[in-house]
Amino acid sequence: MEPHERVWAVLLDHVGKGRAISGRELAAAAQLSGDRELRLIIHEARTAHKLPILSMPGVGYYRPQDPAEIDECYWQLREHAIEVLLIASTLRRCGSERVRNNHGDDWIESFLEMHYKPRQAGLPGMGV
User: What is the pLDDT of residues 27-39, one digit of tens each?
Assistant: First the structure.
């Protein structure tokens, strides 16, 4: 049985937010090496295999009981993604200015151009 199938099988007993299982318990029950492997398998299960595995911070992983649980997880993930993008944007915008001012050279500009300019094309409307 593939790792994502083992995770899905364990989650048969964890339908609904009220029956969520912690990441540590899920990894052990699915015979995974730990949290990092679990996150990779969950990502693969959601994206490649289209399995609706939900999660909430402090709650754990579970299969949806109803559409409302899917919506709740969607909005939580969306809010987290926006927070991460805001942090990345702030670091990009303010971090380079502060480093340049503190060090008196423009090494950070070269670094940012080399590593981040190609990625801007993939983020339409982000204005970072």
Answer: 999 999 999 999 9
